[in-house]
Amino acid sequence: MTRAAVIGGGAMGRLHARVYRELPDVQLVGVSDIEPAAVQAVAEAYSAEAFSDHRRLLDRLSPTVVTVATPTSSHHRVVMDAIAAGAHVLVEKPIASTLAEAEEMIAAAAAAGVVLMVGHIERYNTAVLELRRQLEQGVLGRVFQINARRLGPFPSRILDVGVVIDLATHDLDVMRFLTKSEGVRAYAETRRRFHTSQEDQLTGLVTFENEMVGSLDINWLTPTKIREISVTGERGMFQVDYLMQDLYFFENAQAAGERWDAIQVLRGVNEGAMTRFALAKKEPLRTELETFIRAAGGDRVEDAVTGQDGLEALRLALALVESGRTNQPVELAR
């Protein structure tokens, strides 16, 4: 039986507690939060022991696996405590506030021989997984660009980071996941409209090693949630609706039926057929935590989002923040 604990009793912590409670062969033993009312509510809802101090939870319960769903500014301290206690850790994205903190967390987990995963949950979205499979099969031919839109109202739960670190990290990670390529240059225009201390609007560009260009339209200004990403290539365009887990393919009629050796001489793009994939949908968080449990149990899990993945997404996000501040492109050193 895997003993699980959740540190952080907010919205995401509560979701993690629920899924742990539902998983077979997993026992949710404890939850921790500095707000007594929040932690008590989660503990009572999912039959776990409540703690106001995460270190006391770690010391008394010795959990096998721990989710860290606290504010970003505390990720480093809490994760390091969990690693020191011998627990495998899944930390909600972003991995940390700084690259130095992320690197120290990764090194500590490696030295302790424990798993460090990062909660980039869109990796486990059914539509994203199918899109990755389609791209690996070469359905699009050469990939030209990826466009991400992640819009919605300002979440009162976020106080310590801006929209780039909190939201854009989702799509930056998905871009890396789909293209299997790293970002080399970033440019951004950022604005602070309503947020009192951080940017709440991003229009950004990232150029990847394979010359694919990623664009991001991210904000906390839109009174409805929009979560979508599209990938355009020689043979058409794929579009993902993250919220509905829907995947569409819009065919380039000019490329329909063409041999691979002939596609290089195509002269244009015309509207073709549209296909909506019939996918067996599953809650991404459940898939993520099942992956985490398998990795913590010693299985070799290729779809685990590693600490290094979290570090690279944070590196890109921080480059966009810097570019928005300086109004200059940022080259990413490797």
Question: Could you explain the architecture of this structure?
Answer:
A nine-stranded mixed beta sheet has the order 14-13-12-11-7-10-9-8-15. Strands 3-2-1-4-5-6 form a six-stranded parallel beta sheet, sandwiched between helices. The protein is globular and about 65 Å long. With 334 residues, it is α/β, with parallel strands linked by helices. Strand 4, helix 4 (75-84) and strand 5 form a beta-alpha-beta unit. It has helices at 11-22, 36-45, 54-61, 75-84, 99-112, 126-136, 163-179, 284-296, 307-326; strands spanning 2-7, 26-32, 49-51, 65-68, 88-92, 116-119, 143-153, 183-191, 201-208, 213-219, 221-233, 236-241, 246-252, 271-276, 330-331. It is built from nine helices and 15 strands. Helix 4 (75-84) packs parallel to helix 5 and helix 6 packs parallel to helix 7 (163-179). The longest helix is centred in the last third of the chain and has 20 residues, at 307-326. 34% of the residues lie in helices and 29% in strands.
